[in-house]
UniProtKB/TrEMBL annotation:
This is Fumarate reductase iron-sulfur subunit. The lineage of its organism: Bacteria, Bacillati, Actinomycetota, Actinomycetes, Nakamurellales. Its cofactor is [3Fe-4S] cluster; [2Fe-2S] cluster; [4Fe-4S] cluster. Its EC number is 1.3.5.1. It comes from Nakamurella multipartita (strain ATCC 700099 / DSM 44233 / CIP 104796 / JCM 9543 / NBRC 105858 / Y-104). It catalyses: a menaquinone + succinate = a menaquinol + fumarate. One of its GO terms (biological process) is tricarboxylic acid cycle. Residues 32-126 form the 2Fe-2S ferredoxin-type domain. Binds 1 [3Fe-4S] cluster. Binds 1 [2Fe-2S] cluster.
Length: 265
C-alpha cells in the first residue's frame, strides 16, 4: 500500500489520530519513498511492508522522516526514540538492511539512486512486538548476567578510587556503549543460537573486567567462559561494523577471550 503526502496545504489523512495540516514542503526537499515493515499483533497474521511518500530535506535525520509519517500520514506507526541525538540508544532499526540508529542517519546518505527509496525494518533476533518495536528483555537479561557494575571486596578507600590514565585507557572504548543492541542483533550467531549472550553483553563485561578498581573480573570471566559465552563468537566483525559509537566490539571480545585463555587481565 502506498500512502502519499500530497500537497503542502491539504489536510493529511492520519490513521489513529486527529487530522493534521501538512506543513509546507520546504525548498530543496526531495520525495522519498519509505518502505516500512508494519505489524500489529491485534490485526495482522504477520509482518508486511507498507510504502509512504514523504518530502524530506537532505539534512533531515531518518527519525524526522518517521515522525513525519506518524504525525501527518499514519499515527499508528510505532517506533522507539527519545534523545534524537545518538545518546539514548532507543531507535536501533534496520535501514536498507543495516543496523543503524534512526537519529544518526541523514537523508542525504540514503538518496542518490534514481528511486530515492529507503527500507526500514525492526532489528533481528529479538521477539517482534509491533511495527519497529522488539522485546528488548532478552538483550537486557544477557547484559545483567555479566554483572555490569563495579565489584569490590576490600574495605572502601578513605578517599576516591585512584586510577592512572594508562589504566583508564584499557577500557575507555567500551565505556562508550549506549546499549542500543545494534551489535548483538547484527550477529549471525545471536540470530541462530538463542543462548549466546551476544557482543553487547561482552562489551559491558569488558568495561569492568579491565577496570583496575574492580575486583569481579574472575566472576565475569567464569560467566563468559561457559557454553553461552565468548567462545560462540566466530569473529565475523558484523558487530563492529554495526556499532554507532565506533566501539571496537570484536577487539573487546578478543581481549576477553585472551584474558580467559591466560587467566590474566
Ligand atoms: S564478531 Fe562475534 S559477536 Fe561480533 S558479530 Fe561476529 S560472531 Fe557475533
Ligand atoms: S557496543 Fe555499540 S552497537 Fe553494541 S550496544 Fe553498545 S553502542 Fe550499541
Ligand atoms: S533517539 Fe536516542 S539514540 Fe536515537
Amino acid at each position: 500500500m502506498t500512502i502519499a503526502a500530497e500537497t503542502g496545504t491539504a489536510a493529511a489523512s492520519v490513521q489513529g489520530s486527529d487530522r493534521a495540516e501538512l506543513p509546507p514542503i520546504p525548498e530543496g526537499a526531495v520525495m522519498l519513498t519509505v518502505k516500512i515493515q508494519r505489524y500489529n499483533p491485534e490485526l495482522d497474521d504477520g509482518p508486511h511492508m507498507e510504502s509512504y511518500r514523504v518530502p524530506a530535506q537532505p539534512g533531515d535525520r531518518l527519525l524526522n522522516v518517521l515522525h513525519y509519517i506518524k504525525w501527518y500520514i499514519d499515527g499508528t506507526l510505532t517506533f522507539r526514540r527519545s534523545c534524537a541525538h545518538g545518546v539514548c540508544g532507543s531507535d536501533a532499526m534496520r535501514i536498507n538492511g543495516r543496523n543503524r540508529l534512526g537519529c544518526k542517519v541523514l537523508v542525504k546518505d540514503l538518496i542518490g539512486d534514481k528511486r530515492n527509496e529507503v527500507t526500514i525494518e525492526p532489528i533481528k533476533g529479538l521477539p517482534l512486538l509491533k511495527d519497529l518495536i522488539v522485546d528488548m528483555e532478552p538483550f537486557f537479561d544477557a547484559y545483567r548476567a555479566v554483572k555490569p557494575f563495579l565489584i569490590t571486596y576490600d574495605n572502601p578507600p578513605t578517599r576516591e578510587y585512584v586510577q592512572s590514565s594508562k589504566d583508564r585507557d584499557r577500557f575507555d572504548d567500551t565505556t562508550k556503549c549506549i546499549l542500543c543492541a545494534c551489535c548483538t542483533t547484527s550477529c549471525p550467531v545471536y540470530w541462530s543460537e538463542d543462548a549466546y549472550v551476544g557482543p553487547a553483553a561482552i562489551v559491558n563485561a569488558h568495561r569492568f573486567i579491565f577496570d583496575s578498581r574492580d575486583q569481579g573480573a574472575q566472576e565475569r570471566l567464569e560467566i563468559l567462559s561457559d557454553a553461552e559465552g565468548v567462545w560462540r563468537c566466530r569473529t565475523t566483525f558484523n558487530c563492529t561494523e554495526a556499532c554507532p559509537r565506533g566501539i571496537q566490539v570484536t577487539k573487546a571480545i578478543q581481549e576477553v577471550k585472551r584474558a580467559l585463555m591466560f587467566r590474566r587481565v
